[in-house]
Predict the 3D structure of the following.
Amino acid sequence: MDTHPYHSQRQSANTRNRNVSAILIGVAIWLFSNPAISAAGESTARQQAAGFLKDQISAVSKQLLKDFPEDAETIKSATIFHRQCNTPGKAMKVLEKGLKYNPRNAELCDLMGQIAFEMGEYDKAITYWEKALKVSPSWLNLNNNIADAMLSSGKNSEAVKQLEESIANKNFKALPAPYRSRSYFLLGQGYMQLGKYEEAKNHYEKALKINPKYRRGNYWLGKVYLRLKQPVKAKQHMQIHRKQLTAKADRRSDLAEKNKLAVIDMSSNVELKAFPEIMAGLCLRGSELYGAHNKTKKSEKLLAQGKEALRKAITIYSKQSDIYRELGFLYLVTNSNLSDARELAEKAVALEGSAKNYFVLSLICDRNFDRTNAIIAIRKALELEPGNGMYRQKYNEMKKRKR
Amino acid sequence: MACATVFQKNSILRWGIIVLFFALNVIGVQCATASITFTDITEKTGITFKHVDGSSGEFYIMETISAGLALFDYDNDGDIDIYFLNGSALKGAEYKTTPRNALYRNDGNLKFTDVTEQSGTGDTGFGSGVTIGDYDNDGDLDIYLNNYGPNVLYQNNGDGTFTDVTKKAGVADGARLGAGACFLDTDNDGDLDLYVSRYVEFSYDKNVIFTIEDYPAYPSPVVYVPEPDALYLNNGDGTFTDISKESGIAKHRGTGMGMVCGDYDNDGDVDIFIANDGIENFLFQNNGNNKFEEIGLIAGVAYDFAGKQYGSMGVDCGDYNNDGLLDLYVTSDRWTSLYKNLGNGLFEDVTFSTSAGDGMHNYASWGTGFADFDNDGDRDIFVAIGHIQPNVDKYSDHLTYFARNEILMNTGDGKFVNITDKAGDGMKVKLSTRGAALGDMDNDGDIDIVVLNSRREPTILRNDSVNDNHWIEIHLKGVKSNRNGIGAHVKVVTKDLSQLDEVHSGRGYQGHYGLRLHFGVGKHKKIDRIEVKWPGGTVDVLKNVKADQVITITEGKKTTQ
């Protein structure tokens, strides 16, 4: 068995990309973005698959937290699981316990900050994000999170100070574009609240220059132009914002038409997207931990349990690409059933042509000595997520290799 | 010796400071706990009404939006009566007794008698919203019901009874899924026109059910087609004409719920704010000649602080910072928003900087209102809370279907503090509230609260705040203007304090209250100046009016009754 950076990166991506919205917001986004509405029977199967995986993850995470209460990776996975289940209170309890063992773990502090923010506990969020930043000062996006919480609790001057200092940091330019544009946007928000409209405008413009599609960037630029008594420019930007929203509204109307007598499953759609990855991640981590403690049988048993759970989930609901991908990935990292792994990854891509699915297919092709298709698949992943450093690195490695 | 004396003096001083510190603390705590206090007196009022939402397990969307309520003096006896809306059996539901709306007469001392039967106001349609106004200018208040199904206009006969005149008036509004409603004088011609907000296009064959964590759940309105609202012009002869198209209102499809009409730009004509559920809010600016332009986006009230569309539910307008401009407070499925009127046609979302959303995060909020609960000269905010999903307790570890309502005290410096914890046992009641209405139910000079709780009995909260503050309540009697002065601006000026309010018909969450304006005036026993700007533009000024009384100001007469 080997570990793979793919797994640790996606866990960390889950953690670092602070999702400020609760599950229902995610559901709303899903609702707008997913034109396919299920019939009642399909919905039930999906619910059952999500429920099955939920029980499995719950049991595995409980066991691992009992055997390795100090393990930060397990704590993170369990926390992410509880957030997906709309039980942030349980997530907080897991984290509080975990932070006793890992008081200087920046990612756990960040997670605590995220959950507190989602629950409207802004001061608590600031405290934990400040802790994370103290431990990991180069993690500059935490400044954005802190400033966001400060703005949410009316501490506008403090937010502006936080962001100005972050932007002045010599490492700021190295931050990925989405984080830099967020910093400028939030700084614009701070200045707007302080009534410094010219500064606000400049920062909104900087945010939009880095990311022209910055969500709601045009809305706020329009607002600040109104404050600056430039109604023509204001209307231009407001109209761009409205157009973006109208596109969503049109999708909503389509939905309304297609939804006659439908049952829309609000939670398992979201959960079934996340649960397979959490399950595979927990099993891999647990297997690694048991292995390191010379408990080989337990290690192997846990991996087998993970594979079996994903296999069963597919038999319950066969249309969720994430389950196929994660099962294929488990085969890959355990170096077993590699031809099955490829079939699973191909099925995942056929169901959903996402960057993640293409990336795992590429890894599996590569392991099966099919470099040509591995490169084709990873190119596709990069097309879909051009800014993904890990995909880029792997692509370059593959290209450099002779065979 | 000298040292000992100094020591003794220091010691005495130190003890003195400690005692003073504790004394101040105790006083401070008492002040904080006693500033605004509500007591739940529901059981003593004689009110036996119980709301039903018509549910049969099919999770029809209209079950979640029922219902608002109204506070008004239907019999002109000087005290405020209560009208509760009720749901009715939706497809698949059955009730032993047919649910109906209920009118409770205020007999004084906060005792009420059910007069539904004798008044003829027990509509059995599915009630969503209600508004009150004297549409025929005959001196008594009429009732308009916005239902799922045909709407109803009850004309007050002036003898304690009402007649259903919907057909004659032409305001049944089809058989749609309605929500809020307002009477307003769009053209300042002295009679009240009618705005009817509509929620979504619904029919049983279009029903959509959500499931959350395997539990059935109510759907979001975004899966239904939104509806344009309707504006009816009063013909002055007991009938109305639908001018939705000509006025520009029908151009905009929305998911209207609560609404309020107010002259936010002080240009002498009434504008309209619609709280839309899941899409941008509308602000219809009155351009005269019964033409309206939707300017919510440009005015800054279409979205929340972050520029997001959210599920707006209720709305009230009032001048929270006493700057002479009407601000807006909007409740929603996730948080609340305070929009400060900047006076140049623009609003600023100041929810965070004023703490006007404290304690509301993640809760669905519904009825709301600005009112000076402690009579200190600034308007506080009441927010009704209740989750939409009855099963939420089963899948969430931090949200509950029943939740307490919230109260935000205005600190006088443009900010708010959530004092719910200290505001008495009345604020500890946990149910799933929808409509909320504010009024001085016992005529003692402070504002009480009546809320309608989904699927349960209502809650009557008596204001028991202890203070030495003074107040005045003003009832308007229009002559050229509409009879209750709906749309009039009233300014109350004491030495260092100038306050503005406006007479509204229809506000909060699909309900009505507040035809009698209430002003707290702090320590002032006398009001220096009361200025009434009537909808037609005429102004009446009264000077040196004694505080602590209810007065009536008649248009054109510079005296009080």
Remarks:
- Chain B is about 10% helix and 35% strand.
